[in-house]
Amino acid sequence: MDASTINELIAGSVGGAAQVIVGQPLDTIKTRAQTAPSSKGPMDILTQTLRKEGFFALYKGMASPLVGIAGVNSLLFAAYGVSKRIISPFPQLSLKEIAAAGAIAGAVNAVLASPVEMFKVRMQGQYGSPSDKRLRAVVNEMWRDWGFRKGIMRGYWVTVAREIPAYAGYVTFEFSKRKFSQKYGKQIPVWALLASGSTGGIAYWLACYPLDVVKSRIQLRSTPPEGTPVQYIAREIKLVIAESGASGLFRGLTPSLLRSIPAAASTFAAFELTREYLREFTGV
Fold it and tell me: Which are the contacts of 62, defined by CB distance < 8 A and separation ≥ 6?
């Protein structure tokens, strides 16, 4: 592993931690909106959560991504860097090549993102009853009852299907950054990094949101899906439409988009600033 990849792994860890801390409350609202009865909108879910469970319930499930996000984002950004070098030996890739590298990185990233998000979703799906479980109990239960493939990795293939278009959509981050670079030069202001990261986050969700709804429902269900990935993804989409209409595939989109602005902005800004610092510190 070369020094540049190590730098990307470290920077990815810093960016991931920033993402979790900033974005977790709205992520909890998003997940509950995706899996709650159709009559509940995001504001109703927020009000009920605060009234019945208190403010810190918005951070429910944070332990899983906070522990795992270092690995998830490190793998993502490292895979993205390696993918760019595989696609082209030249440092300045076209936007199409950037999108392809993002799609490859997303597919690789699903290996860690799937179990981390599955445990997060299952923690967020607990509503403050006496029977609520701690993260360790949830992990043990999934492993004991269903094993690795149907328990720990439940929802893996739908996560792959989600991550490919989602991270291809992050090409908007590179597009925005290049536009700012034309005006401000190579060292663009921090606010420009934040703005570019926000556009990337919005594009991420717009590119994949129905698949994220499907993923949350599959990972929260008490039993694993049956059939091939194509079959159970299609079946879940039909079930959502039957229950709530086509709009059901976009439930929770508003808090997701609101979350994506500060979360993606902080992720990319923390990643870029850390990587630049490490590049100057190590000379690589």
Answer: 20, 24, 120
Q: To which H or E segment does residue 133 belong?
A: none
Angle at 166 between CA 206 and CA 195, to 5 degrees: 70
| Tens-digit pLDDT profile for residues 214-235 | 999 999 999 999 999 999 999 9
**Residue 212 exposure: Cα atoms within 13 Å on the Cβ side:** 24
Query: Quick one: how many helices (H) and strands (E) in the chain?
Result: 10, 0
SS3 169: coil
d(CA 88, CA 83): 9
Are 230 and 212 in contact by the 8 Å Cβ rule? The answer is no
- Close Cβ partners of 63 (under 8 Å, ≥ 6 residues apart): 123, 135
Tokens at 104, concatenated: 């490859």
- How many angstroms separate the CA atoms of 154 and 172, rounded? 30
How many Å apart are CA 196 and CA 175, to the nearest integer? Answer: 8
pTM of the model: 0.86
Give the largest CA-CA distance in the chain: 57
- Please report which confidence band the pLDDT of residue 210 belongs to, taking 50, 70 and 90 as the band edges: very high
Residue 112 in tokens: 């860690």
Are 156 and 212 in contact, with CB atoms under 8 Å apart? no
What distance in Å separates the CA atoms of residue 155 and residue 124, rounded to the nearest whole number?
Answer: 16
Phi, psi dihedrals of residue 130, rounded to the nearest 5°? -60, -20
CA distance 254 to 140: 33
